[in-house]
Amino acid sequence: MDKEIEKLQSWLKIAASYELPSFKELPTVPLYMEQVVGYINQKLSPLTPIDTQLLTSFMVNNYVKAKILKEPNNKKYNVEHLGYLLALTTLKRTLSMSEISLLIEMDKDVSTDKSVLYGFFKVMMKDILQETARKTENKTNSFVVRYAKDKKNNPIQADMDLRDSLGLIALRLSIQASVNQALAEVILTAIAKDTHSEKEFEIESQPSSHEVKRVNRLNKGEARRVALAKKNQKKK
To answer: Residue 113: which residues within 8 A CB-CB, separation 6 or more?
Structure first.
């Protein structure tokens, strides 16, 4: 448990000071797809303690297909693409493609200068991430201090208490994320209904049978993985 706690504390410290690169720091030389995917994943890697790809070429192609991103010029992506992809990759965890598209539609009401738009997103993300990470870091550190004292007398019980305490932090964060996502969805739905026609809104908001089947397949796959993990756990 001690090794995992060290990793968690180290990650929280990094997250509490993390910020996206500035618009001026983004590559000005147009990049090919493979370079784009590598760049975005590398810049956002501090936010992924588990080694996973946040962005793939498949996702980028879908953003272009949905006209959320402009078509690349001769298969090369410029600084504007990179700015949007950093934002899109961050938002895709909580917003649907149609919701992200709506927010990007509203960009023109704020500014036509892409550096201004990116700067606004960068500052907002930095403030929210650092505030949440620091609060989580403080709570975690207080539990770790108690854990260090308790394990001298009863290490097994101390491990259980620490896991329970960290689980409560994760639960609270999950509830907070779920509530925030629901509120964002309600607000964006109201905006979409006001700015789009009834037909447009119906097309955007109703998933096709193919999409529903795909989600069901993913859920079944996840259920199998969880069941297998539990089965292996019982054998230990």
So the answer is: none
- Give the pTM: 0.85
Which residue range(s) make up the domain with 214? 206-236
- What's the pLDDT tens digit per position in 153-164? 999 999 999 999
Concatenated DSSP letters for 86-114? Answer: HHHHHHTTTS-HHHHHHHHHTHHHH-S-H
Cα–Cα distance between 104 and 233 in angstroms, integer? 45
Query: Distance between CA atoms of 173 and 8, rounded to whole angstroms?
Result: 15
Same domain? 162 vs 214: no
- Write 136-144 long-range contacts (CB < 8 A, 24+): 136/12, 136/169, 136/173, 137/9, 137/12, 137/13, 137/16, 139/169, 140/8, 140/9, 140/12, 140/166, 140/169, 141/9, 143/169, 144/5, 144/9
Neighbours of 78 (CB within 10 A): 18
What is the overall mean pLDDT for the chain?
Answer: 90
For 86-118, what is each residue's pLDDT tens digit? Answer: 999 999 989 999 999 999 999 989 999 999 999
Q: How many domains does one find in the chain?
A: 2
Residue in the structure block whose two tokens are 């394990």? 151
